[in-house]
Amino acid sequence: MHMIGAVLMPGANGDSVHLSYLPLLTDLSTARSYSWGSAVLATLYQELCRATEPHVKDIGGCLILLQSWALYHIMFLARISHQPYLWTTRLGIGKSCDVLIYHLRIEQHARKGFIWMTYRRPEITNVVPSSALVDSHIWCTNTPIINFNVVEWYHGNRVLRQFGYIQPIPDPPCQLGKITT
Predict the structure, then answer these.
(1) Does 72 fall in a domain?
(2) What is the pTM of this model?
(3) 153-167: b or e for each residue (b if 16 or more CB lie within 10 Å)?
(4) I want to staple 42 with a disulfide (CB 3.0 to 4.6 A). Which of 60, 140, 147, 164 is the partner?
């Protein structure tokens, strides 16, 4: 329960786990057959959308996954230091100018600074077995990612260029509207 509520699918408050997960954990031998990755992505997508609302000041979801993705795709944002890290007593960002600096860096590198196809780098392709690339066209499908009442659409047709395909103008994204439980 701790892994679900604190690492994989934490809410913005980070202090509770929804009861809907309890039945899934009654038999731990079957827990491995569930699509936990899809649930993690659905929760993260929902939290990212919620975080864009003007009144929201927190975010949930698997932020370590988001940070890892950003480290490999938006490398100009990563602070590179070869010195031991010195912990600071300052809590949060506060009135720091870091946020403005990151905004500026993103604007300056918007087109050339993002690495869209990290999996094409030789150091990665050399260790990926060819069986992992079979049926790679399926990666570009449009499908819902579901975690109980969280349903987020994955629009693979909007990111074809990342997988080496020609990117036509895609159809508008599918919108489900507000789902209530």
Answers:
(1) yes
(2) 0.65
(3) ebbbebebebbeeee
(4) 147
